[in-house]
Amino acid sequence: MIHLRLVLPGGASKDVIDYLCRDSRVFNVAVLPGAVQDPPGDMVLCDVAREAVSDVDATLQTLGVDRNATVAMQDIDTIRSDAAEAAERAAPGSPDDGIVWERVVGQARSDARGSWAFHTFLILATLIAAVAVLTDSSVLVVGAMVVGPEFGPVSAVAVGLVLGLRPVVVGAVRLLVLGFLLAITVTTLAALAGRAAGWVTAADVAADRPFTGFIWTPDRWSFVVALLAGAAGVLSLTAGRSNALVGVFISVTTVPAAGNLALALAVWVPDEIGGAAAQLGVNLAGMVLAGCLVLGVQRVLTGLNRGAVRAEQRRS
Predict the structure, then answer these.
(1) pLDDT for residue 109 is more than 80
(2) Sign of the Cα pseudo-torsion (162, 164, 170, 172, in order)
(3) pTM score over 0.85
């Protein structure tokens, strides 16, 4: 269930109020005339079945709730109400399958913007991955995967491609390229310092590594895992299941590949340079491709559902 708060400069129109009160998927409609002082206007509050939010928002836009208005959405974790149960029954599908596209787009725009936090986490994750390679530690590999923040812009690329949001695609691709370049550069410099101190040698990197050798040797399964992880990650975002993202983070070897690449550059191990770069590219490409496929299917399915709902409303 989603709580919707509308701030309507100039006042709420009769059409908007009538629509919200008439739609069986909307309940607890409250109108507060003149409640907003800056900008002056009315506030409208209501609760909406999650799987109907995008459809309700699209209808509100046709009724004049444009960019001058403020539309805020908030998850309701628990609600006990006969009206809530009736709204859920009126909305097609399961609440867990409901996609709030406005949130998906908003998250993508946020993930496509760079921040110091993003770059810092990516650098730290790549440094941890480099230590994992040197010590052949699978535990540290998992730690580096969890710390890495790269799935945000990866999913933003997929959202931008499927929904035709060019600025989101450009921003997310730029963030990924600059982020990995910076993380690899910092890790390479750290490895060069370690090499000068005698802590890092080419033999350490090129040694047989039974627990971390997969990082620089991509194969068909690397691409398969990237596809599966990308699909799971996008599903977790659209369904609001953020806890599932942890599984995605520890499935793909993007950050570990970046750490291995940095080490190989610092001590110059050409085979691992190419292998780690290929692993990084395979994982990023696989996740973007899977994300596009999943979002494309979800867009078609939710579009069909919205059409069915509108037809049912016309009949009633």
Answers:
(1) yes
(2) negative
(3) no
